[in-house]
Amino acid sequence: MENKLVKKVPIFSSLEKEDLERIGKLFLRRTCKTDQVIVIEEESGQSLFIIQKGSVKVSHVSEEGKEVILSILKAGDFFGEISLLDGKGRSANVTALSETELIMLRRSDFLGLLEEYPQISISLLRELASRIRKSDMHVSSLSLHDAMGRISTALVHVAEQTGRTRGDSIIIPKIPVQQDLANLAGTARETISRVMAHFEQAGFIEREGHRVVIKNFENFKKQYC
């Protein structure tokens, strides 16, 4: 099963089947409960993580205790690579948003693969560049948009990371709790509730429990992001 999952990870997708089978044997398994902390900022990093099932949030916590969510990752995404590359502490906290299954690659194995397969290094650089661009867009949203713009950008991020397409709409099977959305958008939980109600009344979204449908997704992005 690991081989199929590893193949879906961008940095390993260019490898041949035999190489994937070999790499798959290097991974270890780990299961995490909802809200379990997987990675703590500044701690020494010794493993690369690939999400097999579930989702996680990547965040910073300020000295005052305020959490800022940087990203939400889903099955097939990976994290923990930065501290493996520079040998320094973890750059952020990572917490399970649901029951999550991970496979892990030890630092020594990861660095060995980078030396043995140059295409992994090239793919890793592309992925890191993509994440920097997304991070820049997130910072721009927080600094330039009003609360509605920041919340819509957060919704779009969650939709693109965890949603599935149905026609011109995107279905988010399990939207993060309001506090996590607030931390992602850099606003208050009460504002999330008010803006989500506005989107629903305007006909842009439908809500049923934790399930959210963003109608005409591209039009929603153009109007609010």
What does this structure look like?
This protein has helices spanning 2-8, 17-24, 81-86, 107-116, 118-144, 147-162, 178-185, 189-201, 217-224, and strands at residues 28-32, 37-39, 47-53, 55-61, 67-74, 78-79, 93-96, 100-106, 164-166, 169-172, 205-208, 211-214. The protein has 225 residues and is α+β, with helices and mostly antiparallel strands. It is globular and about 55 Å long. Helix content is 46%, strand content 26%. It has 2 domains: 2-141, Sandwich (Jelly Rolls), CATH 2.60.120.10; 145-224, Winged helix-like DNA-binding domain superfamily/Winged helix DNA-binding domain (Arc Repressor Mutant, subunit A). The strands form 3 sheets. A 4-stranded antiparallel beta sheet has the order 1-8-3-6. Strands 2-7-4-5 form a 4-stranded antiparallel beta sheet.
Q: Quick gist of this model?
A:
This protein is an alpha+beta fold and 225 residues long. The protein is built from 9 helices and 12 strands. The strands form 3 sheets. The chain has a 4-stranded antiparallel β-sheet. Strands 2-7-4-5 form a 4-stranded antiparallel β-sheet.
